[in-house]
């Protein structure tokens, strides 16, 4: 029997629902033969993207739905996230440099890491607003070694 | 948030007995760290050996915990799994924290210096 190579489902825009969705996708990746290393990397990117939808697009209201589509290819894992929350501001997609770590303790950043992780871990990243829907497509390469 | 504290070799060891530090528990983690370390002195080792997943919110919470401890109480990290270490590396936060392979490694280092 050929293992499943694609999954598609919807869930509520809440932190707990995101946790359950990630767990479900991890299980799917395992069945699809994705290595632990690649799955670990893909989970971080997916978690950051979904957290952004919950926190920013839906402003942490817990209301709203998220649709996730994932396809495992031979070279990469493709993911699409759809939501009907607020649009993502363009400046978010500006190329990120790492935070300035050579600063006094109290000036260290406690946030702003999410998009940096997404940018560094994806080989493809595309955002489109269609009508009232946010569509974020991205891909993570397979065959990583740590 | 399952976390516990023990004292060894002049260090307060805080063990995170959860496999995720993510957006859902970031605030609980910060609160628990404060409760466990408040009113005490000396360096702290955060044992992350059981944690297999961390996201940017979890990372931010660990940075916040380090700030809360202040300049006089250094925060060491120990036992980072590969996927957790990767998040520290890609955000360059591995330059900010003192990271050890194991809790024993921190204690041994202290013993060498003593």
UniProtKB/TrEMBL annotation, chain A:
What are the recorded GO MF terms, alphabetically? protein serine/threonine kinase activity
Q: Which Gene3D superfamilies match?
A: Histidine kinase-like ATPase, C-terminal domain (3.30.565.10)
Organism source for this protein? Thalassovita litoralis
Keyword Transferase attributed: yes
Q: What is one Pfam family matched by this protein?
A: HATPase_c_2
Which taxonomic lineage does the organism of this UniProt entry have?
Bacteria, Pseudomonadati, Pseudomonadota, Alphaproteobacteria, Rhodobacterales
This chain belongs to the protein called Serine/threonine-protein kinase RsbW
For this UniProt record, the keywords arranged alphabetically read as follows:
Kinase, Serine/threonine-protein kinase, Transferase
Is Cytoplasm found in the keyword set? Answer: no
Coiled-coil boundaries:
none
Listed InterPro entries:
Anti-sigma-factor_SerPK, HATPase_C_sf, HATPase_dom
UniProtKB/TrEMBL annotation, chain B:
Q: Which CDD domains match?
A: STAS_anti-anti-sigma_factors
Q: PROSITE patterns from the xrefs? A: STAS (PS50801)
Name all STAS domain ranges.
Answer: 21-110
Cite a single GO MF annotation.
Answer: anti-sigma factor antagonist activity
Pfam families according to UniProt:
STAS
What family does the entry list? Belongs to the anti-sigma-factor antagonist family.
The identity of this protein, by name, is Anti-sigma factor antagonist
User: Which species is listed as the source?
Assistant: Thalassovita litoralis
Organism classification: Bacteria, Pseudomonadati, Pseudomonadota, Alphaproteobacteria, Rhodobacterales
């Amino acid at each position: 029997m050929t293992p499943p190579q694609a999954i598609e489902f919807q869930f509520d825009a809440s932190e707990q629902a995101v946790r359950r969705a990630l767990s479900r996708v991890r299980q799917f990746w395992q069945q699809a033969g994705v290595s632990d290393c690649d799955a670990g990397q893909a989970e971080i990117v997916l978690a950051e993207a979904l957290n952004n939808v919950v926190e920013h697009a839906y402003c942490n209201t817990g209301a709203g739905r998220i649709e996730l589509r994932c396809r495992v290819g031979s070279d990469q894992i493709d993911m699409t996230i759809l939501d009907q929350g607020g649009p993502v501001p363009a400046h978010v997609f500006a190329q990120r440099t790492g935070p300035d770590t050579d600063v006094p303790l109290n000036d260290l950043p406690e946030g702003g890491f999410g998009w940096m992780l997404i940018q560094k871990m994806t080989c493809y990243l595309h955002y489109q607003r269609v009508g009232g829907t946010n569509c974020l497509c991205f891909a993570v390469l397979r065959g990583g070694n740590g | 948030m399952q976390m516990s504290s023990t004292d060894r070799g002049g260090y307060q060891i805080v063990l995170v007995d959860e496999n995720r530090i993510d957006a859902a528990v970031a605030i609980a983690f910060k609160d628990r760290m404060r409760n466990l370390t408040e009113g005490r002195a000396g360096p702290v080792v955060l044992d992350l050996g059981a944690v297999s997943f961390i996201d940017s919110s979890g990372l931010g919470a660990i940075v916040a915990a380090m700030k809360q401890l202040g300049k006089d109480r250094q925060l060491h990290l120990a036992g980072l799994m590969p996927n957790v270490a990767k998040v520290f590396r890609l955000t360059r936060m591995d330059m900010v924290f003192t990271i050890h392979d194991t809790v024993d490694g921190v204690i041994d280092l202290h013993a060498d210096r003593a």
